[in-house]
Amino acid sequence: xxxxxxxxxxxxxxxxxxxxxxxxxxxxxxxxxxxxxxxxxxxxxxxxxxxxxxxxxxxxxxxxxxxxxxxxxxxxxxxxxxxxxxxxxxxxxxxxxxxxxxxxxxxxxxxxxxxxxxxxxxxxxxxxxxxxxxxxxxxxxxxxxxxxxxxxxxxxxxxxxxxxxxxxx
Length: 169
Description:
Elements: E1 2-5, H1 8-21, H2 31-39, H3 48-56, E2 65-68, H4 69-74, H5 76-86, H6 93-102, H7 105-110, H8 112-116, H9 120-123, H10 138-151, H11 156-160, H12 163-166
Parallel strand pairs: 1-2
């Protein structure tokens, strides 16, 4: 099982924009309205913190590889190499580079109309890290920091997310 996770502040930011771009999902007039819903478990697929907490139970299992979105952004070739090794797939350096390039956000966004039609613009917005800094208030930062600590702080999965690096203002 390959478990891909992302820091919760960027998840919230991305999902806010996704919800407002997808008519079947509830839309939010303001970021503040969305943040309240996100933090009070009123999201269409439940609480991201509970999701992380549940997966943390399996993070040490030998048949589970956890990788973060941020890791893949930091070093895409190493990420592809680690994933290939986990699944027992042998790739040359040239193949690793090719997979990393073709699976980059930039490449997927460029091809999104071909691969996902009009939905591609909704799925591939920015693809960055730390966009949350454009939306979160100081109070919202504190609330999310506290909730993260309560659910996965100090756990294997919590450590893997490098919260101190990606989620501290």
